[in-house]
Specification:
Layout lengths: L2 H14 L8 E9 L5 E7 L4 E5 L5 E6 L2 E6 L5 E3 L13 E2 L5 E9 L10 E9 L6 E2 L6 E6 L5 E8 L2 E8 L2 E6 L7 E6 L5 E6 L6 E6 L6 E2 L6 E7 L5 E7 L11 E9 L5 E9 L15 E9 L3
Antiparallel strand pairs: 1-2, 1-23, 3-4, 4-5, 5-6, 7-8, 8-9, 9-10, 11-12, 12-13, 13-14, 15-16, 16-17, 17-18, 19-20, 20-21, 21-22
């Protein structure tokens, strides 16, 4: 392993584990209102949880905690376990299909056996019915980290490490051969489809610093969208496709996206290119890794963190 590859893997080690757990931390699940700028607290625990998804019917959020997934009802704030069968080592890369029928998860598992090759352990993508059930494997190889559903529900987009390089891939939900969309040395991550299915947004080190990019779904027409002093991650398109919400580290983190850092959530207008800072807090890894917009596009969910003394 060369030095550059070693350093990249070292920086990404917390991301590669099945669930990043931190002690002495309070996690707070919040909702941001785009129109008013108000922040509402949904749930707070003296424990570590991550990465909210908003259900397609608008009634609940999904979070991951200690390798499992939970629904948080938005009326009662009650948290209930989702039946993910054998998949009890899920990380913070999960999400709901556009039709609301399927849940994609990233579970620590073994790669499919290949003659003459050793079996590897790592994050592997599965899908299961939204109401819970037995997961079906999608990616044969590990590690693979889910990040986006195509609007027609036929493909998923993900970040995967192959031969020491982290790139963006897509694959059919029925499995088969994966399609590599990025090839630039350095980390490419967080791919998510636009609502019309024509574009994939992602974050990349292609410019030498972590910024938000876009490309067409076949990997062509790559374009850098941000260029500032921040480290920018995980761009999530609004349901109307007009804007992106993403997380910005105040200090350059290179290829890493650690937790417990000074960060801001920012809104990018795709037509004008203007950027608005919405709110700032302690967060990072686990805050907004996956799609979390409300179905009406007026709000989104996120997680903030603070150290506590027990």
């Amino acid at each position: 392993m060369n030095i550059k590859r070693y350093l990249l893997l070292f920086l990404l080690f917390p991301y590669m584990s099945f669930a990043q757990q931190m002690d002495n931390v309070r996690s707070t699940l919040e909702i941001y209102n785009i129109d008013t700028g108000e922040r509402d607290t949904v749930r707070s625990e003296e424990a570590h949880f991550e990465a909210p998804n908003w259900s397609r019917d608008g009634n609940f959020l999904i979070i991951n905690q200690q390798g499992k997934l939970y629904k948080v009802d938005l009326e009662s704030n009650k948290k209930t376990l989702i039946n993910t069968g054998f998949a009890e080592r899920c990380n913070n890369d999960h999400g709901i299909s556009f039709d609301g029928k399927w849940l994609a998860i990233s579970h620590q598992a073994a790669s499919e056996p290949v003659a003459g090759q050793p079996t590897k352990q790592g994050s592997r993508i599965y899908i299961l019915p939204m109401e819970g059930g037995t997961p079906k494997a999608v990616t044969p190889n590990v590690p693979s980290y889910w990040h986006g559903w195509s609007p027609d529900g036929q493909r998923v987009a993900y970040c995967a490490e192959r031969d020491g390089e982290y790139d963006v891939y897509t694959i059919s939900v029925d499995g088969g051969e994966e399609t590599r969309l990025t090839t630039t040395p350095g980390l490419d991550d967080g791919p998510e489809y636009s609502p019309d299915g024509r574009t994939i947004y992602y974050n990349s080190m292609a410019s030498g610093k972590m910024e938000i990019w876009q490309m067409t779904v076949d990997g062509s027409n790559k374009k850098q969208l941000t260029n500032d002093k921040y480290s920018n991650w995980f761009a999530h398109p609004s349901p109307d496709g007009k804007s992106l919400v993403y997380i910005s580290y105040h200090e350059n983190q290179g290829s890493a996206h650690p937790g417990m850092k000074a960060v801001s959530l920012r809104l990018l207008n795709l037509a004008s290119g203007s950027v608005k800072t919405l709110c700032s807090f302690t967060g990072g890894q686990g805050t907004i890794n996956v799609p979390s917009w409300s179905p009406d596009g007026k709000r989104f969910a996120f997680v903030t963190y603070e150290y506590i003394n027990k």
